[in-house]
Amino acid sequence: MRGVEYRGLSSVDGPIVITKRRENAFFGEITAVRDRSRGVRTGRIIDLSSEYCVVQIFGSTSGLSLDHTSIEFLEAPMELRVSEGLMGRVFDGLGKPIDGYPEVFSSELRNVNGYPINPYARIYPRDFIQTGISSIDGMNTLIRGQKLPIFSGNGLSHNKLTAQIIRQAKILSGDEEFVMVFAGMGIKYDVARFFIENFEKTGVLSRVVMFLSLADAPSIERIITPRCALTAAEYLAFEKGKHVLVVLTDMTNYCEALREISATLSEVPGRKGYPGYLYSDLAELYERAGRIKGSEGSITQIPILSMPSDDISHPIPDLTGYITEGQIVLDRELFQKGIYPPISVLPSLSRLMKDGIGEGMTRDDHQAVSSQAFAAYSKVHTVRNLAAIIGEEELSKEDKQYLHFGELFERYFLGQDEYENRSIEQTLDIAWALLSVLPQNELYRLSPQLKEKYMEQAKENVSAALRHEIEALIDAMQENP
User: Fold this and answer.
1) In the chain, at which end, N or C, are there fewer CB atoms within 10 A of the end residue's CB?
2) Residue 77 — φ and ψ, nearest 5°?
3) Distance from CA of residue 317 to its chain's centroid?
4) CA distance 187 to 202
5) What is the third-level CATH fold of 365-479?
6) pTM of the model
7) pLDDT digits 0-9 by tens, 85-96
8) What is the pLDDT of residues 307-321, one digit of tens each?
9) What is the pLDDT of residue 394?
10) CATH node for 5-76
11) For the chain, where do the domains classified as CATH 1.10.1140.10 start and end?
């Protein structure tokens, strides 16, 4: 039965309309806005005063007149229909099917804004997720229940990296497969087609739920898209006991939509014009990841954001880094060298890595090898800066060894094929083999017991091409002391 309609608007400004407040109206309530010809547009209350309601329209407001438009308050928040039938489906940013199939058959509706989680009910994330990508698994490990964003830049290969993570991610401690929830906000059509075709070709589409708000969709829709995706993830994880990997791209487009709404409402701007509540708004999304007592499922989040002008101090990556448990940073210089994935391991960080690696989880040498590789690669950058000043010929023998190590490290450890799925053992063996080209007295983070146990064996386990380069380099250094 249709409810009471209230006729007339006070103002229309872009996607925002203002009308007289109705009794019992609440923040986030959904409205049906009808124009002169009775066409219906969905709206949502985004602000309230004692006399007026501010409603954002999901779509165009053209054709809405102040006198002949009516609003029906639906007395409910925006909801998503949920069931296991979500998997393998493609929806628009508001949760409507766009894959040619009918609505999900279910009587269960969930508020897309989510429900507060008692902090005491959270379980600390500890299970290692193997992505098959050495620069992540070896040095910036992803843990089940973690939120680990990817900081990228325009034109970098974050889409390929994301698709690879979705294809390959698995938990070593059990046989469970991940269910993927993908939310695209303001992405181009060719990017959406890339993901759909990639998932179809590799056979994982049946385990993926996709929400796509394309670049030509109303920017206001981008505000709801990640909330729909996370609502679906919460249902599959906490009610159906599945391990869910949520990918949100591009969070920069989401924040731009927030800034647009804030400017329309004439709110006092914060840094670079973004609203002052940007931090709390992002936290609402990111904090919907994790594990909860009493549920076998989990939600692991990988938000992707393109840093404007590759500026990691921009408000979006800056605030995201505060809320999440680390970041994976893509580097334009590595990308220009042709290295894929172009992950810069030095500014990257996984704050939960220490709790998900080691004996019984990955391998007993993982922490030590990761720490030593990080220290060695850090010195590579110092030596490169020195070589740029005094010339490579003037470097000491030890510094030249670090230059050779850096080149091999980037080509063989950081670099791998888009469809290459490395086990954690392969990743650690490659790191051991590469560290063998450095002076042994420089490997101060590796105990003699670990060196004896793994170093020589690792050289036998790596590819013939890498083994040949290492042997040739060691021979050359011995001939020219």
Assistant:
1) N
2) -75, 170
3) 12
4) 22
5) 1.10.1140
6) 0.91
7) 999 999 999 999
8) 988 999 999 999 999
9) 87
10) 2.40.10.170
11) 365-479
